[in-house]
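Q: Please design a sequence for this.
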């Protein structure tokens, strides 16, 4: 299926130099956080429902094409949407994506750039998953140590490919805390 509704948003993100974006989508009265990552290859769409502890990602291929098959996530999606089996009206995941395609915003707003903790609420498969607030950078230039692969992976997943590449190139670790009061705004490491 082609998600041509993403094309205007993608262009606006590129024009503004944004590589990640977050917006809302409502389907069957369920509120989804949707993340659009154009810094990953292939591009990613991430759908999450905080109140239901539910999340899935799909790859966005060349031409803004997706595979609507959700595998094991299909049953979970139906449950989250409050759908029960009905032989006369079976729900298909393509219905979800068709409606999504019609409700994609065409313009990006800088204030909708996802914060690391917003991504971390769903992407939990990282080291120290309870530490979701960005707390700064640690240069290993004078410590004689190297950035750990696990930290680089957390940086890539929560902050993006540009931050990952900068950290890898300059031997810098991202620092994280579980204390929201210590969180700081992300700036690229130098």
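A: Design:
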């Amino acid at each position: 299926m082609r998600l041509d509704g993403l094309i205007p948003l993608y262009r606006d993100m590129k024009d503004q130099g944004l590589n990640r974006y977050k917006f809302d989508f409502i389907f069957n009265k369920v509120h989804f956080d949707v993340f659009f990552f154009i810094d990953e290859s292939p591009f990613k769409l991430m759908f999450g429902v905080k109140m239901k502890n539910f999340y899935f990602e799909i790859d966005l291929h060349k031409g803004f094409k997706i595979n609507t098959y959700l595998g094991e996530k299909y049953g979970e999606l139906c449950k989250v949407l409050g759908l029960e089996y009905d032989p006369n009206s079976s729900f298909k995941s393509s219905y979800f994506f068709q409606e999504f395609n019609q409700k994609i915003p065409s313009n990006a707003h800088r204030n909708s750039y996802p914060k690391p903790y917003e991504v971390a609420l769903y992407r939990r498969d990282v080291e120290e998953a309870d530490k979701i607030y960005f707390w700064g950078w640690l240069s290993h230039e004078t410590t004689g140590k190297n950035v750990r692969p696990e930290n680089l992976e957390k940086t890539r997943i929560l902050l993006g490919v540009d931050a990952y590449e900068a950290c890898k190139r300059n031997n810098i670790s991202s620092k994280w805390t579980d204390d929201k009061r210590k969180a700081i705004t992300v700036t690229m490491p130098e």
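Q: Thanks. Anything notable?
A: The two ends are 41 Å apart (CA to CA). The chain is about 30% helix and 25% strand.
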